[in-house]
Amino acid sequence: MPPTVIDARSSTATPAGRLAWLDALRGLGAVAVLLEHLLPWFMPALRPYWFNLGMYGVLVFFLVSGYIIPVSLEGRGDVRAFWISRIFRLYPIYLLVAASVLLMAFWTPVREQVPRDLSAVSAHVTMLLDVVHLGGLADTMWTLSYEMVFYLLVTALFVRGLHHRSGTFAVGFGAVAVVAGLVLSAPLLKGPWPAYVSGVLFLVGMVCLISGRFRTAAAYVLGGMSVVLLIFGSFVPWLGAAILAVMFIGTAVRRWEQGTGGLWPVAVATVLVALAPVWSGQAGWWWVQPGVWFTTMALAGATFAGAMALRRRRLPGFLVRLGLISYSLYLLHHPLLRLANSLLGDVRSMQPVVQVSLSAGFVAVVVGLSWLTYRYVELPMQRLGRRVAHWPSEGDSALSAPSAGVSPDKSSSFSLPTG
Predict the structure, then answer these.
(1) Cα-based distances in Å from 122 to 112, 132, 199, 331
(2) 122: Cβ contacts below 8 Å, ≥ 6 apart
(3) What pLDDT is recorded for position 407?
(4) What angle do CA 63, 230, 52 make, to 5 degrees?
(5) Could you read off the pLDDT of 376-393 as tens digits, one per residue?
(6) Are 93 and 328 in contact (CB under 8 A)?
(7) pLDDT tops 60 at residue 399
(8) Beta strands in 239-335 (DSSP E)
(9) How many CB atoms lie within 10 A of CB 346?
(10) Rounded distance between C-alpha atoms, residue 84 and residue 87, angstroms
């Protein structure tokens, strides 16, 4: 029987030197997103409206990504190894879910937001779905767009030697979010061509980053492309910039913890993100109304701060284990929820005891399948990725870390895929 608690002080308590408190946060985030999607279809009376469960979970994910991903790249000091690990971490289960959704189309039609042309293929290959204003095969795939933008931008900053200015970028993207909310009400880069152009640049750029040929130029092009798409191609430009600000807030917190930065940029950027939708023309949804938005942000921030404060204490093992399977859980649950709805009918009209039973059964199935995909898809591919990253490359010496002298952080092997 595994222990019910895992000591957060031991970085080896979980696989690959992961930090238990970060896994616990990911577990909480995944459960919050799952409940946000489950409750309206199964038990709508229990859905909270004083804050948004889904956005709360997503903000927690983004804070964790910001906290660990740049330090992971810096700890490796190797752009090639970083991107190989990202590819083998992100794509296997992502592609499996995409294929499953297409297979389930015989019973559940593919979402209307997904174009029926090659632009959808290109956007799914790059994961830049939301920033080229295209819907994903699974509803939750939209957040991966901002994870990918963050990775591309952080890579460019690392290559340029600007990666330590996290607070500046947090405040900068917060200011962009406010301005974008005031002046932009729709994507300026319209039509399918952003998906096609970004697809070509992404594939060529990835070849350069991994092979070492023209690596620096590729990093700059991909980083610049990601920012342009974020601001001018997103469905909701202010939200895209706000998400990047949140991720850099997570990085700035890490800098403060390491003694290389202050907390004032965190405070300023937080205020800007909170204000971004207040005067925005694209803020008609209930979850971005000031009271709900402020509360959601405050809860996400408090959760992250609380977990960080307790990082040296023992944490509930079930939360940490949920964190381990959170990527699978995050991607699998929505397609399965749509399939369950088509098979079971309108659960909302059923008796409360039936609603509770079906909800519990659905959660058990999703958790079980997520454990299987983690065990038999994610873990083997991560191991393969680590082996591939050690293969020699003619471009290995093409980029020496501009942050020479930065000692690898013991937590840098923590692999955070998404929100």
Answers:
(1) 17, 10, 5, 19
(2) 195, 196, 198, 199
(3) 34
(4) 45
(5) 999 999 999 999 988 876
(6) yes
(7) no
(8) 314-316
(9) 8
(10) 5
3-state secondary structure (DSSP) of residue 314: strand
**Residue labelled with tokens 């700035």:** 252
Rounded to whole angstroms, how far apart are CA atoms 318 and 310?
16
Q: How many whole angstroms separate alpha carbon 175 and alpha carbon 275?
A: 10
Residue whose token pair is 């600007």? 162
Q: In which residue are the tokens 């090659």 written?
A: 118
Tokens matching residue 203: 């594939």
Kind and range of the H or E run holding 382: helix 379-389
CB 119 within 8 A of CB 357: no
Sorted by sequence, the CB contacts under 8 Å of residue 402 that are 6+ apart come out as 158, 159, 160, 161, 163
Residues 22, 414 contacting (CB under 8 angstroms): yes
Give me the pLDDT at residue 396, please.
Answer: 52
Question: How far is residue 168's CA from residue 305's CA, in Å, rounded to a whole number?
Answer: 21
Q: What is the pTM of this model?
A: 0.88
Q: Could you tell me the two tokens for 159?
A: 């290559």
- CA gap 149, 152 in Å, rounded: 5
**Taking a C-beta distance cutoff of 8 angstroms, is the pair 16, 385 a contact?**
no
pLDDT in tens, 147-176: 999 999 999 999 998 888 999 999 999 999
Residue 264 has pLDDT above 90, yes or no: yes
User: How far is the C-alpha of 44 from the C-alpha of 346, rounded, in Å?
Assistant: 12
Residue 228 C-alpha from the chain's centroid: 19
Distance CA 7, CA 86 (A): 27
Evaluate if residue 414 carries a pLDDT over 80: no
Q: Which of 190-194, 238-242, 343-347 has the lowest mean pLDDT?
A: 343-347
Query: Which amino acid, residue 65?
Result: S
Strands (E), 252-323: 314-316
Q: Which residue has the tokens 């700890």?
A: 75
Residue type, 360: A
Query: What integer best gives the mean pLDDT of the chain?
Result: 88
What single letter denotes the amino acid at residue 92?
A: P
CA distance 339 to 333: 10
CB atoms near residue 312 (< 10 Å)? 10
Q: Nearest CA to 267 among 243, 292, 249, 247?
A: 249
State residue 394's pLDDT score: 56
Instruction: Give the model's pLDDT for residue 412.
Output: 31
CB 39 within 8 A of CB 347: no
Match 């994910």 to its residue by tokens.
61
